[in-house]
Amino acid sequence: MRAKRGVIGVFVLVLIVVGLLVPAGKCAAAPKVYIVPLQGQIEHGLASFIARGLREASDAGADVVIIDIDTPGGYVDSALKMRDAIISSEVRTIAYVDSRAWSAGALIAIACDDIAMKMGSSMGAAETRPKEEKYISAVRAEFEATAELRGRDPAVAGAMVDADVEIPGVIERGKILTLTATAAENLGFIEYKVKDLDDLLGLLGLSGAEIVDVKQTSAEWFARLLTNQVAAEVLLTLGLVGLAVELVTPGFGIPGTIGIVSIGLFFGGRIMAGLAGWEVIVLFLVGLTLLLLEVFVIPGFGVAGILGIVSVIASFVLSYPSPGEGAAALGIAIGIAIAVVALVIFLLSRGGRKGRAPAKLVLDHTETPEEGYLAVETYESLYGAEGIVVTPLKPVGIVDFDGRRVEAISEGPFVMGGARVRVIRIEGNKVFVRPITQMDQED
Question: Counting beta carbons within 10 angstroms of the beta carbon of residue 104, is it exposed (0 to 12), middle (13 to 18) or buried (19 or more)?
Fold first, then answer.
């Protein structure tokens, strides 16, 4: 019995020692691989998604992050954000070029620790738009510096951007480099040429790994949609057109509603994508308030109106990654808005004519004296007319102009009844008269 207890004690002691030497679950845990898809145009919403995927992989203790790339390119500034996020990631990153990594997509692939290209895929074609020296120089430097950081040939990376780079036997001067999987492998620019993703996992020794596919959330998908170049321009244009049309038409209706919703979606998408903060909305509202005060409260046009315009313009420009990009987008939207407002004013000016479609936008109804309607009397026709004072002008009284009795104001001394006067000035519904002297009568 004592021997049995001794055996049990030794067994328990062995288990304790093993538990201390080997971290719990380490020997049995499968490696964890995060797969983050990078598909479609590279834009601001996608950059936020990639950054979030890398953070989640790091927080979960992933062994590898595979960025599944299939993109024709997109915004360079968004690609730079992705590049920086990949380089700063603590998790090993592998670019898997599924079909193509063109333009900005090539920079993202080069930024990863390793590159794997699927047979039939391509990478490169990163010439800038616009094709100007300052842009080519900046982007080429980013490609070359990133390649050097990852131990790749910077000349090959630079040739993807700058047609002036010549590599004997690879690319001649005047052409932009685009590599197939085989060409990239022969140059030693990539680590793996594979048949598919499973083949890559096998080469990495991760066939039995736990795979985590990072999915876009609804908010990220919506942010990508709203920050798309075309969608953003449409929303900005609709917003300006809607508000501008509302200012030149009576009441508040459909154009104003469309304008407010469009501007709300424009700013909302940029905030969700991390392109801007709530300060741009505050700046826009301040500017809009100043403009409304200038139009409806403060007479004339002055400091409030100028500050309002500056604030509104600044809110839109600051919503873009660069002032140049924001100014260009805003310029297009303003141009379209001016054209639409001019068209609306033209149509409204013709809208009262029967048989025309714009007539539905304005009242096509008349109220004549024959129908019992009375209008405010005007006195422009009395200018220069002569009349007889009915009641003394002290200085206001009644003057008879050939049977038409009008309240008049004497400009000068009191005028007694029966005197002749002449109309010298009319201001709105006020008639100013002056007595006719003997000299005037002789003239």
Answer: buried
What is the reported pLDDT for 440?
58
What pLDDT is attached to residue 383? 87
Task: Annotate 257-292 with DSSP letters as a single string.
Answer: HHHHHHHHHHHHHHHHTTS--HHHHHHHHHHHHHHH
pTM above 0.90, yes or no: no
Tokens 């200038």, residue?
294
What are the CB-based long-range contacts (under 8 Å, 24+) for 316-319?
316/236, 316/280, 316/284, 318/276, 318/279, 318/280, 318/283, 319/266, 319/267, 319/270, 319/275, 319/276, 319/280
Q: Report d(CA 413, CA 299) in Å as an integer.
A: 35
Q: What is the dihedral of CA 345, 348, 353, 355, to 10 degrees?
A: 110
Low-confidence ranges of the chain (pLDDT < 70): 1-28, 247-252, 295-301, 348-377, 438-443
CA-to-CA separations, 32 to 4, 82, 94, 196, in angstroms, rounded: 43, 22, 14, 19
| Secondary-structure breakdown of the chain: helix, strand, coil percentages, each rounded to the nearest 5 | 50, 20, 30
- Domains annotated for the chain, with CATH where assigned, are 29-216 (3.90.226.10), 225-349 (no CATH), 376-442 (2.40.50.140)
**Strand, helix or coil for residue 400:** strand
The residue among 126, 127, 42 whose CA lies nearest residue 85 is 42
What is d(CA 278, CA 246) in angstroms, rounded to the nearest whole number? 25
Q: 335 is written with which tokens? A: 């141009």
Check if the beta carbon of residue 212 is closer than 8 Å to that of residue 32. yes
In the numeric block, the tokens 């801007």 are attached to 276
| Sign of the dihedral defined by the CA atoms of residues 172, 176, 178, 179, in that order | positive
Q: Which pLDDT score, from 0 to 100, does residue 248 have? A: 64
Cβ of 242: how many Cβ atoms within 10 Å?
22
Cβ atoms 114, 95 nearer than 8 A = yes
Q: In sequence order, which residues have a C-beta less than 8 Å from that of residue 347 and are 6 or more positions away?
A: 358, 361
Among 332, 329, 334, 304, which residue's Cα sits nearest to residue 318? 329
**∠ at Cα 62 (25, 56), nearest 5°?**
125
Cross-strand pairs, 400 = 388, 405
